[in-house]
């Protein structure tokens, strides 16, 4: 993750998912990003130019060395272990980093490049083992003279071929990506293939060295050797040219790769021109190879440092935004709380006004009633006052509820029945009214109003008709998961010969209308007393 | 109850005041007021010295009935029955602090009023 992609991509990705704050804050927050992006683009152009200049200089230096390449130097086979150790360490590390990049970028060119470095790193070992005098005096540990040259040429050809293929694939299929789920199997297959190919090539180079064409004659390269060396140089030079022509400013990895390939090509040219081991060209070629092996490793180190820098900037910007968003949220929260408090206050005031107005209507009816002599008209007004006060009670309960929209129906029934008991003078006539029902029911106005009025009708009737002491039981219970039953039962307070709901009576019409509004059904049973049950849908299930 | 006893009625809603006046008259009390503000209630209480105050809580403007009751109680040892449309917790706590002789929730029924006054005027 740290090493992959262009820093600018990661930078944009970090910002993109977040909602941008507004105005001056945006400008302040994104100033660092804008600066970093602009400097990144400029750096891209400079990087291309610098790469071209470095490659040109490297080529010129190589050309300058060519006349001296054949000069003999001291025979020091002991430098081979150091050369191999340098190449092995840096190229295997680079290979690992490239596989990690491939897992992130999923481009096949990265996979091939990782394979090229894995191949090169692994081939360094057989080179060490087959190089005469590198580890033991007088000859190689394994293989013969031809094995050394065969393995070396397979090494440089294989690396050049894989690296060139990677370059070719990169510029041919820039946007082609492997699905994420296939990256791990692809890496496993690639590693297995490279290890198998290296093993096979080494086996062939050692076991069948005598059957292979001669690549070294005495201490000098054969013409086939030179031809194959030239082929590797041609592949490397072609790749470098392709990168310089086709690579964009942002394709930094491939610009660095061009430097690495140039160094390898220079090594092969110097070694080929030198014509034999331990010459100046051969020794400088080895050094150039070590340099080449370090190039991509350096690229990744640089990327890591740059990512750290961008991460630090991103972190700072993020912290600023979090702080700004937190302040904004705190302001919104405070505003919301104020609005809610205002709404509650307003709603309570509305309920209070409604209740107050109902009381005024009640008072008006009271005056009117006081001017009438006892009789049907006065009784009628008393009925109306009971209904109005039932409505007032609902608003009072709502005013006291925590959410101001639903009320506890059981507690409302308790209050309503308490009022009806007093309003109908039950206390003085030894009529007990018991309210029971353990099932908590919460309801809004739509349910509470018809239920309250219905209860007023059904409880007032036995209270008014009672001619003796007795008991009335009011209950509201769940009949099943979705239904409630309101039951009003007396123990024989009323005259059983008289119909409970006389046909055509105003009370009957009111009761039937309210039952219908509640979506319920009424059932009347008369045994020792009278029991009225209204089954209705549970308000919380509707 | 002693006939002719004076009761100060504090209520800003004219019709409710009229209704309560009728009930008080039916119970045999002389009605003083009604006062519709806290200030007027205090003035009447101090000038008329009633045996009982029937005090609504929400009055015209501010302060409210509880503030008026506190002011009256600070100067007169008169029992005060509060009349309110709601009984919110905060309001109940404030009424408790004034040592109310009773609290009646509107709508007020004749029997309730009679019982509350009877209790408030009981000798301690």
Molecular structure report:
The complex is a heterodimer of chains A (542) and B (124). By secondary structure, chain A is α+β, with helices and mostly antiparallel strands. Chain A contains 13 helices and 9 strands. A 5-stranded mixed beta sheet of chain A has the order 4-6-7-9-8, with helices on one face. Chain A has a two-stranded antiparallel ribbon with strand order 1-2. In chain A, strands 3-5 form a two-stranded antiparallel ribbon. In chain B, helix 2 packs parallel to helix 3 (65-75). The model of chain B has no long low-confidence stretch (mean pLDDT 87). The chains are: A alpha+beta (542), B alpha/beta (124).
Based on Cα principal axes, name the global outline of chain A. Answer: rod-shaped
Number of distinct beta strands of chain A? 9
Strand order of the largest sheet of chain A: 4-6-7-9-8
Please give the number of β-strands of chain B.
Answer: 5
What is the molecular shape of chain B? globular
Strand content of chain A: 5-15%
Q: With helices defined by DSSP (H or I, 4 residues minimum), what is the helix count of chain B?
A: 5
Rg value of chain B: 13 Å
Structural class by helix and strand composition of chain A: alpha+beta
Order of helices and strands of chain B: EHEHEHEHEH
The largest interface is: A-B, 23 and 17 residues
End-to-end span of chain B in angstroms? 15 Å
Portion in beta strands of chain B: 15-25%
**Average pLDDT over all residues of chain A:** 85
Taking the sheet with the most strands of chain A, its summary is: 5 strands, mixed
Give the ordered list of helices and strands of chain A. HHHHHHEEHHHHEHEEHEEHEE
Rg of chain A to the nearest angstrom? Answer: 48 Å
Provide the helix percentage of chain A: 55-70%
